[in-house]
Specification:
The protein contains 11 helices and 8 strands. The protein is of the alpha/beta class. Strands 3, 4, 5, 6, 7 and 8 form a 6-stranded mixed beta sheet that branches. Strands 1-2 form a two-stranded antiparallel ribbon.
């Protein structure tokens, strides 16, 4: 009943013509269904036409006479749809493990390749995500070309986070001086934990003013790499690796839109889907003693 009241409160009878080739214009709140449609599309692996039918069926079941944007309108608006931000369920500083993976771009000629066996190099984009280690929610995500390395996306990921960061954890791809400098610039108190390479050497200032990377190298030389991973909580990055596995299992390993702006929206919606599933399946534990 609550969902029905929300829709009926701002009911729209018919779409309005905007004068451009008699294209229907859907004012609020119908345009708000685009975000919900994208969430349903990502969760159930639907095509745009199937998503249009799903939203129409839901509105019909609720008894609401509300116009549904057609599949082409949803495709256009996917370039501009923004999702509302949600406050973190846990307080305090954020422990941020990050990682990246590749997502296949499904072009319009994929079925021809599958049918006729034509060989063609697949196109990929790199997905970079950062998650809250305490809650398991994805708090930052970027999408880049496959020529962009992981270390270059540390700044854009940190720019999406407004809470203080207690630690930044990544794999060996983030063992760069620029990563330490970027984290120190935005969060001076944050601990950067990335495993140094086997042939890593100390900086020139290691004897007088060692940086974090120098201390990691020195600790590994004294206690060994396995002990350093345990003491520095480097294994926290396994959580974001598991999150990427959930992404591939639930959302899929490819991108369905063809334009960059729409793909960025697709990634944001997919992250919201995983966060909502995580919130629904995660128990709320309260300490009583």
């Amino acid at each position: 009943m609550g969902c029905r009241r929300r829709f009926q409160h701002a009911q729209v009878r018919q779409p309005v013509l905007d004068g451009r080739q008699h294209r229907p214009f859907f004012p609020n709140p119908a345009c708000c269904t685009d975000g919900r449609a994208g969430i349903g599309r990502a969760a159930f692996h639907l095509a745009l036409r199937q998503t249009e039918g799903l939203i129409g069926s839901i509105l019909h079941w609720l008894g609401i006479d509300l116009p549904v944007p057609d599949h082409s309108t949803m495709a256009r608006r996917a370039r501009t749809v923004t999702l509302p931000s949600k406050a973190r369920p846990t307080g305090g500083a954020l422990h941020l493990p990050v990682d990246s993976t590749g997502l296949k771009m499904c072009g319009p000629g994929e079925w021809l390749i599958e049918k006729h066996g034509t060989r063609k190099r697949r196109s990929w984009r790199n997905l970079h995500i950062g998650m809250d280690a305490a809650s398991g929610r994805i708090v930052a995500a970027t999408l880049t070309g496959r020529e962009v390395d992981d270390a270059a996306q540390v700044g854009p990921l940190l720019d999406q986070i407004t809470d203080p960061v207690a630690s930044f954890t990544g794999d060996g791809a983030y063992d760069r001086t620029a990563v330490y400098a970027t984290a120190r610039e935005r969060h001076p108190q944050a601990a950067v934990v990335t495993p140094p390479r086997a042939d890593a050497v100390l900086s020139d200032m290691a004897a007088t003013a060692p940086i974090q990377r120098d201390r990691h190298i020195q600790a590994i030389a004294v206690t060994g790499r396995m002990a350093w991973q345990r003491d520095s909580a480097c294994n926290r990055r396994a959580r974001v690796e598991g999150q990427i596995g959930r992404w591939k299992q639930v959302i899929g390993d490819g991108l369905r839109f063809h334009t960059v702006k729409a793909q960025v929206t697709e990634v944001a919606i997919a992250a919201e889907v995983l966060n909502r599933m995580r919130d629904l399946g995660r128990p709320e534990s309260v300490r009583v003693a």
